[in-house]
Amino acid sequence: MPRQMNFSELHWLLAVVQSIDVGIVVLDLECRVQVWNSFMENRSGVASKQAIDRSFFELFPEVEKPWFTRKVGRVVALGTPAFTIWKQRPYLVHFKNYQPITGQGEFMYQNTTLLPLRSANSEIDHVCLVIYDLTDVAINSLALQKANNQMQQLSRTDHLTQLYNRGHWEQRLQFEYAHHDNAIALLMLDIDHFKSINDRYGHQAGDAVIKCLSQLIHQHLRDSDVAGRYGGEEFAIVLPRTDLGGARTLAERLRQSVQNQQVLHNGQTIAFTISLGIACLDHTARDHRCLIERADQALYASKRAGRNRVSTYAA
């Protein structure tokens, strides 16, 4: 026969519930509050005597009533706990985030547990909601994730141009080649007489010209396009789902935009042009490197023909 809890033990249990650093709310089957500990008082600003017998949804109108009611119903029906974690649902109720780190969310990040509470006759007449403050854990995890994302971005981005580096855009080209259902075009371009720009104006001026070109490339890209630096003053743009006509239209627009642009550096105005070459998957290709070779050949055809022009690969 189970030992009956005496009054002193009940008093200890109530003291633990009041002092524990988690939110404890006991709800009846209509989600009216029956127990409201000091954590809930301090975070909500609602005293226990004001919360008792009030609807949980009246106290927290931000809670999705249909979702929470279903969750309580499953706990009662199955007699097993239910959980939410902050990564899936950052918070259940709106408690202010008082952490010293700013800019990490207005509300406290929370994990929650719903526990079935059996009465003396083994019926489940109440559920206990436990709210854990996971703000420190969440903020550290989000900061680490942000740092990892930044490191990943740095590892695939060219520092000077903020375009993708060769390793990344070539990897994307290889992916598009392997999975293409429609046309793919590759656009190669470089700055005409770039060595003369460096010799005449200096290498910092050359860097300014490269940055200017990279910004113009950014402005002409679609969301699906992938632009990167091939090396030195040479660039590549992967154009998924693009035929020769579409690639040529983009190339001409970019060429004219560069021709009309001037770079101001140390009081000097620098005009420059670019030459471009296009290759498409309208010829048999053994792998994605064939596109690079063909676009490169088309680029040098533009160079030989006088520069500041667009050429396409011809088999």
TrEMBL record:
Query: Which organism does this sequence originate in?
Result: Pseudomonas sessilinigenes
- Write the Enzyme Commission number(s) for this entry: 2.7.7.65
Signal peptide from the UniProt entry: none
Which InterPro entries does the record associate with it? Diguanylate_Cyclase (IPR050469), GGDEF_dom (IPR000160), Nucleotide_cyclase (IPR029787), PAS (IPR000014), PAS-like_dom_sf (IPR035965), PAS_4 (IPR013656), Rev_trsase/Diguanyl_cyclase (IPR043128)
Q: For this protein, what reaction is catalysed?
A: 2 GTP = 3',3'-c-di-GMP + 2 diphosphate
Q: What is this protein called?
A: diguanylate cyclase
The segment(s) forming the GGDEF domain are 182-315
Keywords from UniProt, A to Z, are: Kinase, Transferase
Q: Which PROSITE patterns match?
A: GGDEF
